[in-house]
Amino acid sequence: MGREVKRPQVALIGRPNVGKSTLFNRLTGSRQAITDELPGVTRDRLYGVCEWDGYELTVIDCGGIGPESEDPLWEPVADNARQAMKAADLVLLITDQRTGMTLSDDAVVRELRRLDTPVIVAVNKVDDEVHEADAWQFFGLGFKDVVFISALSGRMIGDLLDLIVSRLDWEKWPEATPAWAAQRYGDAPDESEAAAAATGADAPLPEGIDEDYPFAWARESRPRFIPDESWKEEAIQLVFVGRQNVGKSSLTNALLRESRALVSELAGTTRDPIWAAFEHQGQRYEVLDTAGIKRISRLKEDVDYYSLIRAEKGLRTSEVALLTLDAGEGIMEQDKRVAAKIAEFARAVVIAVNKADLLLEGEAARRAYEDYVRGELRRLSWAEVVLTSATEARGLPALLRAVNAARESFHRRIDNEALQLVLEEAIALSPPPVVKNRELRFFDFRQIGNCPPTFLIEVNEKKIMRQAYKRYLYNTIRKHFELAGTHIEVVYYTRMKKRGRQ
Fold first, then answer.
1. Under 8 Å between Cβ of 10 and 57
2. What's the angle, vertex CA 25, arms to CA 24 and CA 27, rounded to 5?
């Protein structure tokens, strides 16, 4: 993974429910943003890359500016959008042909006129030429560049992108131009590929990988077993997961040192996963802040369901899961369910206990609370527990150190001879029980994968191995090798007609 390419930023601005998220997904060729008929679904700023004719630009999806939304957080959401608008190199003002011009459109225009930023008006939901007659009214907003589009069907998206490219001064971003792209990728992008990305056509991806996976590395074809150290040159992919309102977004902002994610006392503030990158002491990180994981029975709206699906996908494509807890509330049943969900995907794990400023001071109190957490979350007893406070920026260096160590364990490769010696000794000290006059024999022990570390044990008949003895071998592997901070998997395989060794 090379250094970050500097690209112009294009902000999608408009009132709620005009199709900004649909256009964002269209331009970035993804399904990153949640779309729904309910106004005010998008709250945080989402960033994605759009490529057109060799030019690359960063597209920012923002929440709506205006009171149409039923969202109680519409005012801070609008402020968040204004921040993106001020930082943008070009603003796409998205309007809705079906509802026509509104007072909220006028309010957005007044704010845009205070900025010295190029503006293009994209009149959305113009599905055919018949509806263009109703869209001409938007020239009354006073901007010369007006394009009639349909983000849903892709109509006129190419014309919109041509106009965006022509309105940007590309001398400021030479690395995002076709000439530099040819140097990075070997050839200039094919026009058909660029058009496919803009119109939402399917692009080939590695088997089993969906296009809305948040981490770039997950889109690459990778073997289950990574035999070299190439992964150390790449950014660490970490994801905040947990139930609602435990401080995931606050910790994300604290790590980024900016108000990137919207924070409020309202449970379920975060809906779309928020991806961002940062660097600490020479190590690069990619962090994903996800929506709080609810019980399926408590998903009241489609938005909640899609937020859950995206959180699970972020978990599946990450390296390190940051299970976030609330020190003030202690361990709840939903925390245990989230821990079980992490176990399904077998990630490296760090337990981040937020709001630790509410706990008693002192080393003894800290250790007692860590023991309490491990006692309640027995499935993650091997994970490091870090006490943090997002509001006071406490515990963040320790959190990142734990992340680094967990990632090392996640990629750990163990010498097979050492593995065999350890397990043969363990079996000799405590042989497996004889089951129905059948004796369990062992043939081979070896590591067959990492991310997470996975081990194969060949036996004469795996059906006669008791769960208690499986736990014994599992714990033996953990005890003798540096695997703290990550799930491990042990696979048993029956190999018949082989003379084993005891």
1. yes
2. 65
Same fold, 9-199 and 416-494: no
Q: What is the CATH number of domain 416-494?
A: 3.30.300.20
Cα–Cα distances in angstroms (integers) from residue 220 to residues 49, 145, 208, in the given order? 17, 38, 11
Nearest to 410 by CA among 466, 486, 469: 486
Q: Encode pLDDT of 65-107 as tens digits.
A: 765 555 445 466 667 778 888 888 999 999 888 888 877 778 7
Identify whether 214 is preceded by a cis peptide bond (ω within 30 of 0): no
The span from the CA of 45 to the CA of 76, in Å, is 12
State the CATH class of domain 216-410: alpha beta
Q: What are phi and psi of 456, to 5 degrees?
A: -110, 130
CATH code of the domain made up of 9-199: 3.40.50.300
- Give me the residue spans of the domains in the chain: 9-199, 216-410, 416-494
Contacts 24+ apart (CB under 8 A), 301-309: 301/36, 301/38, 302/36, 302/38, 303/34, 303/36, 303/38, 303/41, 303/271, 304/268, 306/34, 306/36, 307/34, 307/268, 307/270, 307/271, 307/272
**Separation between Cα atoms, residue 322 and residue 246, nearest integer Å:** 12
E strand or H helix that includes residue 147: strand 146-148
Tokens standing for residue 280: 């600490």
Q: Whole-number mean pLDDT of the chain? A: 78
Asked if 399 and 352 count as a contact pair (C-beta separation under 8 A), the reply is yes
pLDDT at 70: 52
8 A C-beta contact, residue 11 and residue 85? yes
412-459 residue pLDDT tens:
999 999 999 999 999 999 999 888 888 999 999 999 988 899 999 999
Which structure tokens are listed for 282?
A: 């020479």
Residue with tokens 């979350």: 377
Do residues 62 and 32 make contact, with C-beta atoms less than 8 angstroms apart?
A: no
> Is the Cβ–Cβ distance between 212 and 35 less than 8 Å?
no
